[in-house]
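User:
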Amino acid sequence: MKRSILSLLCTFTLGTMHAQVSGMWEFTKVTLGDEEVTPVAKWTRLNEDGTFQSGNGWVQNAEGTWNYDKESKSFLPVTKNGITDEFGPFEVSFTGDGLTWKRKEEGMEVVVSLRRINEIPKGPMDEIVGLWDLDDAQSNGRNILDEMDPGLNRYLFIRWDRIFVFGNTPDGRLTGYWHFDGHRPQVTLIYHDSARDREYWNVSYEDGKMIWNNSEFVELTFSRIGKFPE
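Assistant: Predicted structure:
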């Protein structure tokens, strides 16, 4: 009887600790030494069967298995489709609804703070996809909308397959590839026309508008639309 009770208590304890770790988590802050390297909209789903999936926003980019050792309070994820992790398990601590992972990487301390969530977080990369109308264009405080959109029908189409289209521009239809940075809200435009330079735009959203800024103090404001302008 005693062995049965001890076995039951042990199973209950392991199950409770497992439940503390399993679930969906968002990375709220990641530091490497003195540098903050928090990825945008990073999440991981730790399933009770010991498998996991991770991603940024709506894009899943990793899967594998995980193990939590309650004696050493260590957590070890092993990816099936990524680079082999040579730094070993994380030391885990619990803070209310949060988790903290810590370990050393190349002599520097890595600290990962996570919070429990119910849905996959939506990042700025997910918001950018769609059809947009150019509302306003400023350069150092000067309105340049007439220069960029003389017909007031210029549009930007950000496709899910990483192709972008600028339509009804003074130079005609412009296309290329777009890439969104994983650690900051910045989009890079790589034109199919190799004569055009790459463009780097910081992206933000406000009151339903999408706002782009670059290092040359140009600011573009877009509104989402449901059909292509004529």
